[in-house]
Amino acid sequence: GGDHTITYPILQALAAKHGPLGLVHVDAHTDTGDRALGEKIYHGSTFRRCVDEGLLDCGRVVQIGIRGSSYEPNPYKYCREQGFRVVPAEECWMKSLEPLMREVRAQLGDKPMYISFDIDGLDPAYAPGTGTPEIAGLTPAQALEIIRGCKGLNIVGCDLVEVAPMYDVSGNTALLGANLLFEMLCVLPGVKTM
């Protein structure tokens, strides 16, 4: 879908109903910048604005696959100061993420939570159709492990953002995005799968 700014009003609405939410956030970037070109609301500030408004239960926020460019010398400092768990991409390389997701499920517990999946969390070898590709990302299999690892959590919403099909003539990014959204629908509470 659209850029990561769309998650901000969605979380405003969900937090108004459920209170501060837990979050599983898959991305190459933390999206906790303060300003860009003088603007406080943009796709790289989404989760800082959510913290500012108390929309997130910060001890129940996990960011997975973070890597790449940053405007800060310590790009994880703000997140960790808020209580987020940051899992850099290099901690995911060459291994199954099932053990990580067991820890994530324990951390998030049974309170309401949200899944926000930026397609650039995946390596651009698999998903080049995005505006801010970063090398050395997650694999599609790891993406499935993350999403399927959320089954049983109290998921109140989810999104998949930053797919830009015009940057991928093969169509693979859009196909991957559609499949990941399908997987998210399958892990929603009450959905029966085979």
From TrEMBL:
Could you list this entry's UniProt keywords, alphabetically sorted.
Hydrolase, Metal-binding
Q: Which domain of life is it from?
A: Eukaryota
An example of a Gene Ontology BP annotation on this entry?
Answer: putrescine biosynthetic process from arginine, via agmatine
Write down the SUPFAM superfamilies for this protein, in alphabetical order: Arginase/deacetylase
Chain ranges passing through the membrane = none
Is this entry keyworded Metal-binding?
yes
Note the Pfam families from the entry. Answer: Arginase
**Molecular function in Gene Ontology:** agmatinase activity; metal ion binding
Family affiliation: Belongs to the arginase family. Agmatinase subfamily.
Recorded protein name is SPEB protein
Q: Which organism is it from?
A: Catharus fuscescens
